[in-house]
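Hey, I was hoping to borrow your eyes for a little while. For a while now I've been wondering how a particular protein folds. The fold is given in discrete form, as structure tokens running alongside the sequence. Could you read through the record and tell me how the tokens relate to the sequence? Take your time with it, there's no hurry, and the full record follows here:
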Amino acid sequence: MITGTAAVQELREQLSRAANDRTPLRIRGRGHWLDAGRPVQAAQVLDVGALSGIVEYVPGDLTLTAFAGTPLDEIAKVTGAERQWLALDPPGPADGTLGATVSTASAGPLAHAFGGPRDNVLGLQVITGQGELIESGGRVVKNVAGFDLTRLFTGAWGTLGVITMATVRLRGLPEVDESVTIPIDSGSNSLPALLSSLRTLQIAPLALELLDAPLSRRLGAADAGSLLVRLAGNGDAVRAQRTILGQLGAVHDAPPNAWRRLREIELEATACAVLRLSRRPSDVADCIGAIHRDQPEGESAPVLMHTAVGRGVARCIVPGASAGGLDALLRKIETLAGSRVAERLPATHWSSMASAVGDPLSRRTKQSFDPLNILNPGILGEKS
């Protein structure tokens, strides 16, 4: 297997040949996200999975540089030995790669406290659609700022360049890290008042997710829905926050592996669609109520919904067995204010979603880095 800088050079040569031949490429790491985003029409696959390994780790600076194909669980193992961690928990298996996480800007519940990839990535090495190797950002937390290419490539889904290496910000592991659940009826009329009270509590959770009833039952938390909270700090701080949370209801220890199962729930449920809605945090309750009212009666595999209360981001997971409810869900989402993003959809439904890059600025940016449109063509709805 070719690894390290030799693999980067080989990728450059493959990209240069593809550009010369105008051959569209599908970029692949471990393949977990190949069914996400719009269908890609590509003649060849560009595999970056071999580009794996940690390049540099400086515990004293809380920074780590790794090749794009490095699995997140490998980074967790190395940094955990130094009582540090990379606070990114994107949906999907723990062996998802750093490059895929950055490329898709996938954020999980930890974004409540630490932000998403754009807040944790310090620098990138990228190969453009013409085979040019460029670097942005740096390997230190404080860096001279110019035009922020690092944030531009983060979340571009590989349509501007192939990420080969990333430098990320690490955090110190807390002394105590535990999770609790509070039974909450996510379909109740009292939900707006309860969430309003939650925002006034003197707590600082690492993650705060509201689970609807079907998802709560699936995770073994509660029948009517529940609030899943991750608390961290020293022992006194965590105990104090548990006491404060008791104002909302009975506080229970969370089921084992609750956060891991939440990350992987769309795989466990064999999801046919995953949609993400963004609303103002104060409007979250109305959004949840609207979605619940539209779920078909007696559905054997109902929509699973979890909401980052502090960020106002809700993810709706439609199991394959309930594909019949997808059209109704899409119609309901169309009537809700705020933004909507489809992560996964059947090929037949993508026409109902507007392009993510239909504006002139996005088209000119694409032209600058991938003028021949050979990198993941069509995944964001862009046209040649």
